[in-house]
TrEMBL record:
EC number, UniProt record: 4.1.3.38
GO biological process: one example: 4-aminobenzoate biosynthetic process
Cofactor field: pyridoxal 5'-phosphate
Group of enzyme by EC: lyase
Swiss-Prot/TrEMBL catalytic activity: 4-amino-4-deoxychorismate = 4-aminobenzoate + pyruvate + H(+)
Protein name according to UniProt: Aminodeoxychorismate lyase
Gene3D superfamilies membership: 3.30.470.10, D-amino Acid Aminotransferase, subunit A, domain 2 (3.20.10.10)
Record's keyword annotation contains Transferase: yes
UniProt keyword Signal, yes or no: no
Amino acid sequence: MILINGQPENRIPVSDRGLQYGDGLFETLAFRNGELELLEQHIMRLQRGCKRINLSFQHVDSLRAELAMLCAQTAEDSVIKIILTRGSGGRGYKAPLENEAIRIISSHSMPEYPEANQSGVTVRLCEQRLGLNPTLAGLKHLNRLEQVLARSEWDDRTISEGLMLNINENLIEGTMSNLFIVKNQQLLTPALTQAGIAGIMRSKVMEIADSMSIACHEKALTVNDLLDADEVFLTNSIIKLWPVKTLLHNDTNTHWQHGALTQQIQNALKDLAH
């Protein structure tokens, strides 16, 4: 099911700036066990993103009602996607002086990842690099061509994710996930001040770590930091947490165990309605 500004519809004008320029934001939520997980955190990130890109978003209550309508007609666990665009504004990059976000929400089948949460996943390093843009860093904006190109680098179903570096060779994230390293019983995650998406699940893991008195640091990380890690895991709102068991790099394999700290965080993520 798809709703556009609350109405059943599956088309937008060709002139929509989301299509023309990637001028907008999106959120991906898990609908599990009859609940939208971490809804308030997703809405807050949308509002922060709208402020950053100067996109008017006044109809938050309407969005909540539309999400409730969509979920009421969704019987199974699903992926719910929210897209906000700046709407139509004529040809040219200059945004209209007055605009109100166009709301597009849709439901999709929940993907299955057999045993990934327990046995761990295999990842690779991508050749595609992320550019530096502190203005857009952290935002879940519609310009995802770097990730599209990175994900096109492999077609091996045994590889679940690709890790991306920026042009300065710092680790940033996966093509669809955030990265955590465990070293000496501490969590390390890449700083996202120049590139990358500040994921909702990433924030939740950091919150959980703080509540458990587990040190968690955001910092510049390199491939050598990754190779030297005790444990590695990935997060996003749909997968929650994937332990990484194998990294394919330069024709060699690096292996990690599904370690104790990873399992501790994983157990804390089981109930995520709020």
